[in-house]
Amino acid sequence: MPMRRARSLVPLVGVLPFFAYLLLFLLIPTVVVIVGAFQENGSFSLSNIHALTNAATVDALRSSVVLSASTAVIGGLLGALLAAVIASAPETSLVRRAVLALSGSLAQTGGVSLAFAWMATIGLGGTLTTMVQNALSIDITASGWLYEMPGLILVYCYFQIPLMVIVFLPALDGLRPQWREAAQTLGANRFQYFTQVAIPLLLPAFLGSLLLLFANAFAAYATAAALVSQGSSILPLMIRAALTSEVVLGQQHLAYAIALEMIVVVALIMGAYAWLLRRSSRWMR
Amino acid sequence: MNARRLAVAASAMLAMTAVSACSSAPPSKSGGNSSAAATATSAADLGGMSKLVAAAKKEGSLNVIALPPDWANYGAIIKAFSDKYGIKVNSAQPDAASQDEINAAKQLKGRPTAPDVFDLGQAVALANTDLYAPYKVSEFDKIPSQFKDADGTWVNDYGGYMSIGYDAKKVPAVTSVSDLLKPAYKGKVALNGDPTQAGAGFSGVVMAAVANGGSADNIAPGVKFFSQLKKAGNFLPVDPTPATIEAGQTPVVIDWDYTNAAETAKLPSWKVVVPGDHPVGGYYYQAINKDAPHPAAARLWEEFLYSPQGQNLFLQGGARPVLADQMKSDGTLDTAAYKKLPPVKGTPVLLTQAQNTKAAAYLAKNWASEVK
Questions:
Q1: Using CB atoms, which residue from B97, B187, B194 is nearest to A231?
Q2: In A, which residues are within 8 Å of B187 by CB distance?
Q3: Cα distance from A74 to chain B (closest Cα, Å)?
Q4: Tens-place pLDDT, residues A216-241
Q5: By three-state DSSP, how is residue B342 classified?
Q6: Which CATH number fits domain B161-281+343-370: 3.40.190.10, 3.30.750.24, 4.10.91.10, 1.10.3720.10?
Q7: What is the mean pLDDT of chain B?
Q8: What is the DSSP letter of B328?
Q9: Regarding the domain delimited by A12-281, which CATH topology (the fold level of the hierarchy) does it fall under?
């Protein structure tokens, strides 16, 4: 018996580096954040957890949720449409491969470079701004909306749409032609097939993708940090302010508390995602 | 020192990680910290300037942090120091904020890459005095007492006044703070940094407060002013940098007069006014890290900054050196550079530590909800 048990442990050796990685970069930081959130001046304290109910922090949470939800819905709908278009193309199609390759890289385009790209295009004195100004005498950046919430929504959609294409396409590909043929054989028209077969089948995957997009936007930091300099409208920027402010000092542990709040939100979202994924995978094997 | 630059803001959270990741470079000179220089409170403690210079040269390098090359002329100052003494200056995170300097000192403590010297805003400087090594430069006695700690734990190095810079080609001349509410400045007024985060932005609110019936003890009118500015559509939520100023994207900038004045050299139509009869002043704080890996070089750096050469270099960057009055009477002041400073009239408003804390608490509570 001991021999057999030893052998069954052998495959685990291969995943050891992965567990070590999880420990170093996920578990330890999470524990540090949780412990830090409940401390002040070196002893246990709930003051920073209480501070999460301050008007400014609640506002930031609301803005973060609005930003994440709206870009998840906009990105999700547009991304799903785009995915549907390329799913109907054969796998060898050039358009399909081009869109997929482009989505793969654009979904990862974020951070400072993306923010600067937008500033250079439609920011103050940006290329497009100047062209529109010269041609139509309209100032499309009036009062700098790009540097506030509407700007964040626009810029986030830039990486949300391609991400949706990548995560939703497998679900579309999983719709077997036989199902449509079966529905047609039974007398369903196109509309009925969509509303009674395709959409119910795809709904869990679609909602799951929305949750993934939500979490993606919720945790994004660098793009917003590069765009927004006045105010800390969303939670990641509040963490920055708490850590680096040279005016309001001693807020390091508030940063931990906000980080904990974000972990809780993302954990809830990912829990719901896992549940939806199980539902959709029932049909998609 | 100033939380101005975009890219840096983005990396602020990871800054510490980045610094520690790069720290494998120079081998530890562990002998340095235990040397006599580490406890010397003046050059005389080491046997005079020549001994200090020799000890600093032996250490061979100096770690500075959060000194942007275009801020108060630090680029030229670092070069001049390096050329004069043959000491290599490692300038880390030039665009970092004051709090980043303290964080770096704590996280890198005992390592050869820890910062040797600090240049800090008031609030951060006075909250961390237990991290500094007291040291009196040879000019120490000439520095007015309100600009230094009696033991030399910290000493103000340079300062300036809150100002409004504007591009005379793009907007009408600004004469007072209230001018900025006029329709001519719609979408044109930028503030250097969020007042709850950056010292310059904070002082901008104090300036607006003083101009609107408030005072160092009552900054509420300043917050109200920015709230009106925002409602009028005049407040531009863009971080002003030399690039945005030169590109005409931020035609009006509220910032320290030395940063604003430095722009005039590049953009001749850039005018700078220090508005009102009670200019809001602010001085930076110079201090030595008590755990400096290069204690002698750190002390020599201080000697250099307060020498006429160092002080004039600040002045040439548009900052007001703390020894300006003394140097004027000594005849060592660069008067040509001094004349270029924006004119200031009236009694300056300088916040005490208590006023600073009170104002910061008020901002933390009210700024975000008022100005949106």
A1: B194
A2: 139, 141-144
A3: 25
A4: 999 998 888 888 888 778 999 999 88
A5: coil
A6: 3.40.190.10
A7: 87
A8: H
A9: MetI-like fold (1.10.3720)
